[in-house]
Amino acid sequence: MTPSTEQVISIKGLRKSFGDLHVLRGVDLEMTRGENVAVLGRSGTGKSVLIKLIVGLLKPDAGKIIVLGQDVEKLQGLELDQFRQKVGFSFQSSALYDSMSIRENLEFPLIRNVRNLGRADIDKAVEEALDSVGLSQTINQMPSELSGGQRKRVGIARTLILKPEIMLYDEPTSGLDPITSIEINNLINEVRERFGATSIIITHDLTCAKTTGDRVAMLLDGKFERIGPFDEVFADPDERIQQFYNYKFVN
Ligand SMILES: Nc1ncnc2c1ncn2[C@@H]1O[C@H](COP(=O)(O)OP(=O)(O)OP(=O)(O)O)[C@@H](O)[C@H]1O
C-alpha cells in the first residue's frame, strides 16, 4: 500500500487534569491515513484518557484535537453521532452483551446507527464482519461460550461493522496467551490492509507494539516523549524507556 500523506489525526498541546492530577501535559501527535501508531505507557499514565478525548467523551483543558478534519471539541448532537461512526472504539474488556448472541451483538451498532437497513443488509454485514475476524462459525453462540481471544475478535468485528475510518484499540491483547496475542496482532494488521483503517493501539505488550505499530509513541510524564519506529525509540538510552523495555526481565 502506498503511504498516504493525508493527515487524519492532529493533536496539539493537549492537556487534561482531574483536580490536582495532571494526566496529559502537552500531548502532540500527527497521523496520516492508513498509519498504525502503538501507544505505550505505564498504568495510569493517561492512555485511556487520550482515547476518550479523541472520541469526544472527555473535554480537553487545553490544546486541539482535529480528527478527519473536524475539531472534536466543537462536535455535538448529530455531528458527534456521525463522527463516532467513523471512529471505532474497541474496548479493553471487548464489552459484549452477555445476554445477546454473537449475531445480536454485531447487529446492535448497525441497528442503532444506520437507518433504513433491511434484514438482508443486516445479515450480510454481520456475516462479513464475523468472516473478517475468522469467526463465522460462532454466529449463533453466546459470548460465554467463547474463549477470551474469540471474544476480543468479536469485539473487533463489532467495531468493524460500521466500517470506521479510524480504529482505536484499548489493550487488545490484555489477558491473552502469547499465541492468541499474535493472532490479534495479525488481525489488527489485516484490518489496516483490508479496510485502510488508521489505528491507534494502546498496549502494554511490546510484541503487540512492535508488530502492529508503524511507529510507537511513549507516553511519559504526560507527553509523548518519543515517537518513532520501535527499534529507534527503544535504542534511546533514557532510563525510563529502558526500564519499560526491560520490565519483563526484572524480578
Ligand atoms: N473521569 C475521571 N475522573 C477522575 N480521574 C480520572 C478520570 N479518568 C481517568 N482518571 C485518572 O487519570 C489517570 C489516567 O487514567 P487512564 O485510565 O487514562 O490510565 P491508563 O494509562 O489507561 O492506565 P491502564 O494502562 O492501567 O489502563 C488515572 O490516575 C485515573 O485515575
UniProtKB/TrEMBL annotation:
The keyword Transport applies. GO terms for molecular function: ATP binding; ATP hydrolysis activity. The keyword Transport applies. Keywords: ATP-binding, Nucleotide-binding, Transport. Residues 9-246 form the ABC transporter domain. Pfam families: ABC_tran. It comes from the Bacteria. InterPro entries: AAA+_ATPase, ABC_transporter-like_ATP-bd, ABC_transporter-like_CS, P-loop_NTPase. This is ABC transporter ATP-binding protein. The lineage of its organism: Bacteria, Pseudomonadati, Bacteroidota, Cytophagia, Cytophagales.
